[in-house]
Amino acid sequence: MSRYPVALVLGLENAIGLTVVRELGEKGVPVHGIARESAPIAAASRHCAAMTARPPGPMGNWLPDLIARTNAGAVLAISESDLLELSALPPVIGDCHLLVPRPEPLAKVLDKLRTLEIAAEVGLCVPQTWQPRVGEDFAARIATMRYPLVAKWANPPEIMPVLERAGLEWLKTDYIRSARELTALLDRYAPVGHWPLIQQYCRGVGLGQMLYMDDGRATVRFQHRRLHEWPPEGGVSTLCRAEPTDAHAAQMALSEALLRALDWQGQAMVEYRYEAESGRYWLMEVNGRFWGSLALARHCGALFAWEAYRRTVLRQTDAARVPRDTLRARYMVPETKRLARVLLSPGR
């Protein structure tokens, strides 16, 4: 029998959940998964000791009972929707710690426009950003924009149900190359009266700085550079490599300052576009959930799920070990899509 309390993990359906299960299990933590699917990928791991089908209804109706039945000491979640629901519950239920952000910091991070405003106050470079609103002179704005542009929603969890009710597809990012394309995008969302942020396209490579924050200071730091992305013009990482721990040191300090200004507790990735020629780091967003390239961090020894568990549940305060910086990770499914695009539509 393990000497550690059970960790409940919500979200076994993807590679992120699998990484969290493996990371905790390898440290000897009994992991009890909660899943919507009958045979999720993370449940196949030898580190997933047990699994429960997710009950219907709000978590507040069933989670306390599951915590009591499993004697759980921690709850971790993968998706933003689960983080939002858990953040509304008490931070401790019985003896079980909900290892999720509190509502106010989470709301700031999910609101990309608010994050950019706070980042500018801290001293980070932020891209020029326009939030279209009802009643504005769109034609005048369109005439002054410099292309290409990127469109992305300020608060995805908030807008997703609105778009779904209207029969509109939610797109994480949309790339705009001309005034005509921008006009079409604004017209597309006019029926719902909500529009994504319109942001200048920032050249450079993707750089992610990952930190675990505890009482205003970083206890784990890790960073990676995106070598390939899907779509190729910018998106999710499909091939990334760890960056040396002493690289981008000044920017890492700014990332920590930003998370401190956000009153952030726990893991987060601060995402940039880095222009080596100019030395500029353009802030894209702060990702407050476990991220897609978490497996690279884990294999390098930057253990974010374990850091949350050991510091909160076990009350350990010793320093985490410095991670390796010599590995790469490839996400094969979107990497294959990228290869097809590059080969079949090289001019796109």
CATH superfamily of the largest domain: ATP-grasp fold, B domain
**Overall geometric form:** globular
Distance between the amino and carboxyl termini: 56 Å
How are strands sequenced across the largest beta sheet? 3-2-1-4-6-5
- Return the average pLDDT rounded to an integer: 96
Return the domain count: 3
Can you tell me about this structure?
This protein has 348 residues and is α+β, with helices and mostly antiparallel strands. The chain has 3 domains: 6-100, NAD(P)-binding Rossmann-like Domain (Rossmann fold); 128-200; 202-344, ATP-grasp fold, B domain (D-amino Acid Aminotransferase, Chain A, domain 1, 2-Layer Sandwich). Helix content is 35%, strand content 26%. The protein has helices at residues 15-26, 59-70, 80-87, 103-110, 112-122, 138-144, 156-165, 179-189, 249-261, 294-300, 304-312, 332-344; strands at 6-10, 31-35, 48-53, 72-77, 92-93, 96-98, 129-130, 149-152, 174-176, 197-200, 205-214, 217-230, 236-242, 266-275, 280-287, 328-330. The chain has a 6-stranded mixed sheet with strand order 3-2-1-4-6-5, with helices on both faces. The termini are far apart. The mean pLDDT is 96.
